[in-house]
Design brief:
The chain has 574 residues and is mainly alpha-helical. The chain has helices spanning 5-16, 25-33, 37-43, 46-75, 77-88, 91-98, 103-125, 130-151, 158-171, 176-204, 212-232, 241-253, 263-286, 291-310, 320-348, 357-377, 394-406, 411-423, 427-439, 450-468, 472-491, 498-517, 523-530, 541-546. The two termini are 14 Å apart.
Length: 574
């Protein structure tokens, strides 16, 4: 599967502007130059870039309008305005929208499933004509799901979100007989919408013809194998749920704490987002259970949970889909904050207005408990130090060291301290930490599991640290083990896709050549190894812009982690 929707959209816009694309030169340039954004940028004509940026901005504006509509429908005009404003205040979203990238097309279709689900749930409740029933519950949601999946692979979340929201909306309906009838119709509508989605995808992508379900499954398997390669290089890898949840939570709720803002200002900004998000969830969950509320709650939980369970690498653009429902929940919560505060004060003064003391205090306790849980999950100490925006603060290093000391059996914590030491030129201490982390990882883990990937990454980090400390023989030994570990991971791949296998073979050849260079004690070989992964990962724009160190801004044109390999072709689309 080639996720062709964005290409069709960009191609149509370019053709309308008289800029026809007749060959694959740009595609091949991207495959060859994505590591060097400046060189890649010079390959793209300015006129084409203006058109694609216009398309990206247009879809970004549509996303903003959709979020406003959902917010005002659920909690009034203020919530809609806050939702749109918080989205426009998100530097990651703004940079992506202005970059001529495909992400805003995905975001639009993934958000469009909400009004489609709301309309479908209402149509099922009402006595509608068969034509309207078929269109609103099957054809439109199926088309939206296909467009989301065809924009990017993670857009497939639209399907389960639609089916789940329709089913839950039926479950909360009053009356046992009516509820059972709606549940049956919802299951039928969800299944038929999935059939329509697959049919539309077959039309959009002719490579799916013949056995569409089998080829769709193969596409997801290939994508998973490609993400394994991305975890090893360029990384940074997110190998367990704790790391993924922390990365997502920090970049959507607590990112201000990673910037060089004054501490009170940073804490205030993060605190408002966390309180708004938690209060928004509690506000939606404690309303009288209506189908509209259930549909929006299902979208919020489904998108956030789906991306958190999947996200393989620390790439800020992967946090954009869940950022939308998080922003919506925060806007609903912030809009309800004055009223919630008034209710608590009324209870404290024993006023007669509002709900009883037990109800108000229970809601406040729920928000507080949820806030503590979100703050614990979104702890910056679980970030890769290379993704941190303000490492110069002394408390940052202390937090990493405290985490490693409190969890001495955690390879993640030891590895993060090692990376921090390596970034600060303390190579011997970094090597000790990496060696300690390696001792906590199985020596012969399953080839298709995260432990094998972690071991290969740790061995390369250990080789870099030893090279930086001048121990070239030790670095060579670690590199040889690293090459063997990568070969083990390659042997455990599930797809056998030629493009993915070729990418692994190139990586193995590069690392084997590094080990060969270290046979003779040459300073330049050690330096080349030490600098191999010295550059930081692509960071969120708010971190790049506000960093004291003046590091280069995030490279929006890189797109490395978002690409999907094509079967049997040496190319990778943006």
């Amino acid at each position: 599967m080639r996720t062709p929707v964005a290409k069709y959209v960009f191609g149509a816009a370019l053709a309308a502007a008289g800029l026809h694309v007749h060959d694959r030169r740009l595609q091949d340039d991207f495959a060859a130059l994505w590591r060097t954004p400046d060189a890649l940028r010079r390959k793209v004509p300015d006129a084409m870039l203006r058109v694609t940026r216009g398309v990206s901005v247009t879809y970004g504006a549509l996303v903003c309008a959709l979020l406003f509509w959902i917010g005002q429908r659920m909690a009034g005009l203020l919530a809609g305005i806050l939702a749109a404003s918080l989205l426009l205040a998100n530097p990651s979203f703004l940079q992506t929208a202005r970059g001529g990238l495909t992400d805003t097309i995905l975001l639009f279709h993934l958000t469009l499933i909400v009004p489609a689900s709301l309309c479908a749930a209402r149509t099922l409740r009402e006595r509608s004509a068969r034509g309207r029933l078929l269109a609103m519950t099957v054809l439109v949601p199926g088309l939206v799901t296909a467009l989301a999946t065809g924009s990017k692979m993670n857009g497939a979340l639209a399907g389960p979100v639609y089916a789940g929201s329709l089913l839950l909306a039926a479950v909360v309906e009053p009356g046992a007989w009516r509820r059972g009838r709606l549940i049956a119709r919802s299951l039928l509508a969800g299944g038929l919408a999935a059939v329509v989605a697959v049919a539309v995808l077959v039309v959009l992508d002719p490579t799916l013809q013949g056995r569409p379900l089998g080829r769709l499954h193969e596409a997801f398997v290939v994508f998973g194998d490609w993400m394994v390669k991305q975890q090893i290089e360029p990384g940074p890898a997110l190998l367990d749920l704790r790391e993924r949840a922390a990365y997502l939570g920090v970049l959507t709720l607590r990112v201000r704490e990673l910037t060089p803002l004054s501490r009170p200002l940073a804490w205030a900004g993060s605190g408002l987002m966390v309180i708004g998000f938690c209060l928004g969830l509690v506000t939606l969950a404690t309303r009288s259970l209506r189908s509209d509320t259930v549909v929006v709650l299902c979208w919020i939980v489904g998108v956030v949970a789906g991306v958190t369970l999947w996200m393989p690498v620390a790439h800020y653009r992967y946090t954009l889909p869940p950022a939308l429902p998080i922003i919506l929940a925060a806007a609903i919560g912030l809009a309800a904050l004055p009223r919630a505060g008034g209710l608590i004060l009324a209870v404290a003064r024993r006023a007669s207005a509002g709900p009883g003391p037990v109800t108000a205090l229970t809601g406040a306790a729920a928000v507080a408990a949820l806030g503590l849980g979100v703050t614990w999950v979104a702890d910056p100490v679980h970030l890769d130090p290379r993704a941190h925006g303000d490492l110069a603060r002394p408390d940052v290093e202390r937090s990493y060291l405290d985490a490693a000391q409190s969890r001495p059996r955690s390879p993640d914590s030891q590895q993060r301290v090692g990376i921090l030491y390596l970034m600060r030129g303390r190579s011997e201490e970094a090597a000790d930490r990496f060696a300690a982390a390696l001792g906590l990882v199985p020596h012969d883990p399953p080839a298709d599991g995260p432990s094998a990937v972690r071991r290969s990454i740790l061995l390369f980090d250990l080789a870099r640290a030893r090279a930086g400390a001048g121990d070239l023989a030790g670095a060579r030994d670690a590199l040889r083990e690293h090459v063997a570990a990568v070969q083990r991971v390659r042997a455990g791949l599930r797809s056998g896709d030629p493009f993915v296998l070729a990418a692994f073979d190139r990586l193995i050849a590069e690392r084997a050549a590094m080990a060969a260079d270290l046979r003779s004690p040459r300073v330049d070989a050690g330096r080349r190894l030490t600098a191999a992964r010295d550059s930081r990962p692509e960071r969120a724009p708010q971190l790049s812009r506000l960093s004291r160190s003046g590091s280069a801004p995030a490279r929006a044109s890189r797109g490395s982690a978002g690409g999907t390999p094509r079967r049997g072709r040496r190319s990778m689309p943006a």
